[in-house]
Please model this.
Amino acid sequence: CGVFGVIGVPEAANFVALGLHALQHRGQEAGGIVSYDAGTGFNSQRRFGYVRDNFTKQSLMETLPGELSIGHVRYSTSGGKAPVLRDVQPFFGEFSMGGAAIAHNGNITNAVALRRELIERGSIFQSNSDTECIIHLMARSMQRTIPERMEDALRRVEGAFSIVAMTRTKLIGVRDPLGVRPLVLGQLGGGYVLSSETCALDIIGAKYVREIEPGELVMITAQGVESHFPFRRQKPRFCIFEHVYFSRPDSIIGSRSVYETRRQIGVELAKESPVDADLVCPVPDSGVPAAIGYSQESGIPYAMGIIRNQYMGRTFIEPTDQIRNMGVRLKLNVNRALIQGKRVILVDDSVVRGTTSRKIREMILDAGAAEVHFRIASPPTAWPCFYGVDTPQREKLLAATMSEEEMREHLAVDSLKFISLDGLYRAVGETSGRDDSSPQYCDACFSGEYPVKPSDQIEQGFEL
Ligand code: 5GP
Ligand code: SF4
Ligand code: MG
Model:
């Protein structure tokens, strides 16, 4: 998901809408905005679909007045369940000392246990969302102020959270102690901005100030930023997959350009797994920077062998079985004239179920390619993510049940190579690779080493 907040700027919700639009890649299912205005109090609007289709209407934006506003774009990780509006964030709660709204990116790994305990003690849940636990924990806290209640609540929460929240007078930002998901601070005129990624600061012309640190809670008023560290300090474990796929290539993470990291992954891939071929082609859009790096390092020409239809929204793949079975063809097409008779290296960011790769191989051979070589910009995805990235159950992950050679046979390609975990660490700037005794990143979906015990999942039978 994506989170964004603005304080100290007139019509703050308009900036939040623009910020969310720039974070749309982090969640396309739904979006919501809350604002506060002394005259009308807290106001909230939540909608299914893209930001641009909802939060551009003047009649809607007029209902969100004020100089303080937060928003959320949602990407469902509650696997398979039909989406319902009451699960769309931000969530709002009314306390004795005023209201608070909260938007969360990540996933709480002990939410099932917390929810059970809270319901037993009388809490009334309105949604299925893990995030709502935070509101109820805050309601039960004995602390005086809302920020103190939030600290109290978050000390009981396990897992990954980057949070943007607001009271009547403050914008609040928090990152979990490991800093799994990103969150940055910016400045806009006399006010401040919190955002999942820097690309959303650019769209509103805000100045990048710094990252919120892992384990940090910032309380922001128009006067300034106050910083707290309410959790026990731990060594950070940022999500390495943000670098590979999730973040936008024009964002900066930890002073590194995401684009440059992805290009470097391609360079590493070309060094680790060279192959003689005529063309290097990306699977658009996620494979583009790595394909550029692979081409530059190998000297094999880069070309657009697959063209993406830019108008293909995710929600379009609904209507009939007949259309659904066409799958990836709705989004991607082979550039036949280029591919015919060529030995092609295809670069993609990841193989999850393997359905995309299989369909693409089929299309590219149909178009007359002489050979197809897959190069993947991440190590084999053999474990599910429990920290906010939607991956299927372990059994459905190709790499959970097959060796690399078995995957190559299954995909029926001439060769298949993944970047090594060490190669990936080098590409993100860790020159001596992964520190196996104390890894610098979360890489659980590749290594199976979960930095936070997925306790709800273990209770439901998941085996480490
Ligand atoms: P597969 O077809 O192997 O199941 O999925 C691989 C494709 O899904 C890749 O092209 C990759 O770009 C995309 N992908 C990787 N991670 C995610 C994710 O977290 N969410 C979505 N929607 N797509 C992803
Ligand atoms: Fe990121 Fe993978 Fe860790 Fe999930 S398991 S937080 S996707 S590195
Ligand atoms: Mg892709």
Summary: Residues 315-319 have pLDDT under 50 and may be disordered.
